[in-house]
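Morning run. Coffee first, then this:
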Amino acid sequence: MSKMEKCIKMTIVSDLKSIDGLFTTTLLVLFLSVIAPGVLIIYLFLPELFLELDGIKFVLLASSLSLPVFILNCVFMPAVMGYGKDDNYDFQHVGVLSGIFSSTILYGCLIAAYIFALKFSLFLGIIVIIEVLWLSFCSVLMYRKGLKL
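And here it is:
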């Protein structure tokens, strides 16, 4: 091994050792809440598209299907966590909790769509109803705390 290869190998190893648990958890939750549900939605409702698209197009389409749920939950999660308007909060914690909640909604609806053979429009309707109920709950919490979005 040359000196350059040893230096590069040492850099990669030291970089891997410096990764903390919160960062790893954040990446895992983001993958499981943004990309994976979209992949399952495509596979469940358009299996032919699952085989036809190439890598980057597939990832973009998959994330575009589940990203709106994640973003809505990210916007309203600080109110649920008890943060006020002027509070400084950690975006990683908000992202992880929003990802967990988004995953719960999307995977639950995917399981229901698979078991009951729901059409895509009904699947989306269930997601919209759950999100409206969630956002209503968040709005009530924000109103009680005197917060504005």
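DSSP finds six helices and no strands in the chain. Good start to the day.
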